[in-house]
Q: What sequence folds into this?
């Protein structure tokens, strides 16, 4: 007699669980961006992508600049790349700008799949969210928001440029510039960026509206749409909106009066065009990367202001980089509170948690440290002027894309350094710190002691 029970028990046994992935979320996101860059490099290296052969390093540089939505270029996008190559760059910009996890979550939703705990953790890291329950709705809203805004931008620019270029050419230019502007990339199909349109109100207003919208942060726009009243907005959104207004208006006034008589920038324009050009130059350093004025011809004071704006960047959960606007103002508020001997740091009637202040401080310190290291290394490899090297470093780390002319003359070592800076800038210095220091819980606390500061 055959005893089937042992065989039945074997069949009823649960299959061995797959090995769990223990990698930290920032590592997964980094690997995702790295994979996209490598794929982009191979696509741009194809003969069909360029009119003349492009080196592997230049292909890697271009792919990294596109995925990190920087805009620094070693090959002219409009003349060196074919239509296929330009399409590849546009796709890399879109994927890199909105974030890989946005598309990954949206794809899972479209396929009817469920998002596991590990995937949720990775997505929360990408979205800078703390509530898992809002991830799916956030991903849907991000995609919908991007499609609507980009469709509006493409329509406006296509209609406006149709008389100048024809419908087919205007549609392609409108598509490329809208993708590049909304994602704060700064890639242009002309070697002089948008300098040809310095006095064109339609192009100036449309492009700046696109990159300000993309750089403000999706969470802020979602909250504006849902609550629609200033008093109902969260302190974060109110600080982000107020900070953006202060920075933009302050930069506009400063650049207008600094460059007013500069014949190489605003000096040759009439009053209306001066304000338009000053406006564009005031908002573009917030990681947009386009320019209507010659960056190398700016007064040193305007260059110093541009460096500060590139350092600050845009908003969280946005297409912009930098230390972020709220981080900058949290540090200012913390400093103000300390000077007033206040126990708490407050904003719009709410106390900012100490952990948030510490995170902002850590982010700024790491960012400054990486900036200094980038400047030091580029000074060793390049023979440009000090200001040009500083500008290039801050622009690369802030994924801005503005340059004083150093990019085209970078050595191979310099290109590698800038590639690393762009990659670090897109992922965030705090993510880099996550790699280097694993969290630990102290079981032993040391007695406190006073240290002399200042």
A:
């Amino acid at each position: 007699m055959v005893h089937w029970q042992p065989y039945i028990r074997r069949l009823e046994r649960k299959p061995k669980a797959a090995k769990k992935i223990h990698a930290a979320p920032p590592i997964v996101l980094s690997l995702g961006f790295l994979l996209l860059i490598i794929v982009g490099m191979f696509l741009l290296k194809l003969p069909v992508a360029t009119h003349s052969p492009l080196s592997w390093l230049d292909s890697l540089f271009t792919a990294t600049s596109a995925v990190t939505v920087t805009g620094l270029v070693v090959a002219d996008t409009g003349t060196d790349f074919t239509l296929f190559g330009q399409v590849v760059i546009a796709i890399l910009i879109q994927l890199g700008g909105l974030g890989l996890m946005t598309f990954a979550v949206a794809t899972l939703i479209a396929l009817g799949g469920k998002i596991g705990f590990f995937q949720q953790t990775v997505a929360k890291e990408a979205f800078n969210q703390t509530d898992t329950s809002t991830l799916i709705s956030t991903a849907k809203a991000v995609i919908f928001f991007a499609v609507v805004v980009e469709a509006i931008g493409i329509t406006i620019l296509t209609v406006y440029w149709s008389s100048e270029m024809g419908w087919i050419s205007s549609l392609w230019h409108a598509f490329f510039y809208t993708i590049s502007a909304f994602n704060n990339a700064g890639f242009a199909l002309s070697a002089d960026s948008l300098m040809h349109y310095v006095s064109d109100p339609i192009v100036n207003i449309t492009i700046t509206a696109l990159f300000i919208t993309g750089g403000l942060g999706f969470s802020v726009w979602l909250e504006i749409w849902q609550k629609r009243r200033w008093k109902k907005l969260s302190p974060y959104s109110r600080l982000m909106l107020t900070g953006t207004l202060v920075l933009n208006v302050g930069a506009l006034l400063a650049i207008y009066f600094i460059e007013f008589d500069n014949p190489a920038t605003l000096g040759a324009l009439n009053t209306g065009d001066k304000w338009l050009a000053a406006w564009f130059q005031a908002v573009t350093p917030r990681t947009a990367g386009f320019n209507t004025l010659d960056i190398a011809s700016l007064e040193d004071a305007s260059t110093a202001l541009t460096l500060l704006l590139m350092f600050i960047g845009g908003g969280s959960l946005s297409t912009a980089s930098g230390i972020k606007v709220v981080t900058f103002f949290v540090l200012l508020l913390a400093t103000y509170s300390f000077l007033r001997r206040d126990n708490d740091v407050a904003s719009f009637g709410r106390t900012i948690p100490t952990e948030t202040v510490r995170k902002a401080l850590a982010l700024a310190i790491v960012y400054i440290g990486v900036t200094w290291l980038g400047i030091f290394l580029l000074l060793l490899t390049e023979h440009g002027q000090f200001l040009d090297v500083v500008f290039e470093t801050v622009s690369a780390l802030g994924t801005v894309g503005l340059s004083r002319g150093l990019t085209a003359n970078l050595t191979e070592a310099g290109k590698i350094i800038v590639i690393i800076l762009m990659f670090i800038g897109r992922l965030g210095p705090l993510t880099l710190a996550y790699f280097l220091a694993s969290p630990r819980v102290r079981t032993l606390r040391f007695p406190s002691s006073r240290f002399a500061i200042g």
